[in-house]
Amino acid sequence: MTEHGDDAARLLRRAAEHAIDFRLGVDGRPVRAGADAAELRDRLGGPVPEAPIDAGAVIDDLVTASTDGLVAMAGPRYFGFVIGGSLPVAVAADWLTSAWDQNAGLFVGGPAAAIVEEVAGAWMLDLLGVPPTASFAFVTGCQMAHVTALAAARQHVLAATGWDVTTQGLAGSPPITVFVGEERHVTIDRALRLLGIGTAGIVSVPADGQGRMIAPELAKAMASADLGPTVVCAQVGNVDTGACDPLDEIVDAAQENGAWVHVDGAFGLWAAASPERAYLVAGCERADSWTTDAHKWLNVPYDSGFAAIAHPEPHRTAFAVRPPYLEFAAGDRPPRDQLDWTPEFSRRARGFPVYAALRHLGRSGVAELIERTCAHARHFAARFQAGGAEVLNEVVLNQVLVDFGGLDRNRALISAVQEEGTCWLSGTTWRGRSAARVSVSGWSTTEEDVDRSADAILRAFATLR
Ligand SMILES: *Cc1c(COP(=O)(O)O)cnc(C)c1O
Question: Residue 297: CB within 6 Å of ligand 1?
Fold first, then answer.
């Protein structure tokens, strides 16, 4: 098959038709997957094909074999974990990203990709209440955004003691102490593991009933420690409750002790983009680094995370690379080679879908998306309470934690709801107590979807009571 021939055009159009069919049908299908692992293995597995197979047949077979093994995460009634849908404009830009096939590590690998990241990065800083002088990186998700931001933090806090981790490594370095809230996300710990800081250096600070770090407890813990290089990891948007740490008080305590403040705002940082919710992240602009996702609340396809760092110097020192073979004949001096700011080398041009989503929504559209999904969460909570269940959290953002009567009942209810297929929700243990959790993160959820889903959940509840 030739790239420019009719075959390629037919193949790509056909794939687009399959994708469009899926998108248009996503509202009408059960939210859960139909096929199980054994069926999928049976359809998709087997030995390496010995000879080429027609490209059109590969795509058609892939669609036939996979479709009922997909979950309707892109649909309006998926409420598990914290999962955004994907805005059509962002999916369209993502298709183009694949088709354009730029290696967006270097400016010369795609000048448009580089400039779009520059523009989209500045828009992100603006919308998220981060100083415009911050450096940034588009990465795969909040996990790698933590690694990026905390690598800069590690560089910075050790440099202050005269230790250059970039050349000297960590063996023999002054130990780094990391204060975290006890209800932090697990990706903070894993970032510290990957960075060689380790979890032994973590001091866990007590949190309140909503999961917010108790700032006076942080101040107390810092006062009683023998502090060298220090990082404080705050969180806005607890993955279960949506609660946000009191950033102003945390920054006060941290700055008094010369600590770097990192903010995990995987979804919660988007509160800054909503005039109604921004109070939750007051003081955010005073932090040293921030991380968030575009694939959660901004509703951009996977995978799309973002790190911002108030101190470009240690950020660049931690990542810059310049091997001789990256010399090229470009006339322009590149404004910014993305690979100097990211852990990846070759990388996807993931700025395009973010740019498209932000340009389409605008400031008011982003605010409206955040406020609308928060209102849906409050509506869910009201329906659950009216139906006799106990809502365990203050519904300040898009998360609802609800107890339908203990572990066994919650488990049975979650299974029954998932199986019935109207909507999908997951479970958790919140401070020792079993709960079901609902996260409203998708752009396409309407109030009718909330009511239909609440009806399905309360029907299952009635059956189990
Ligand atoms: C989802 C989440 C993460 C991890 O983000 P990924 O994009 O999955 O890597 C980190 N912190 C919080 C609070 C989250 O909700």
Answer: no
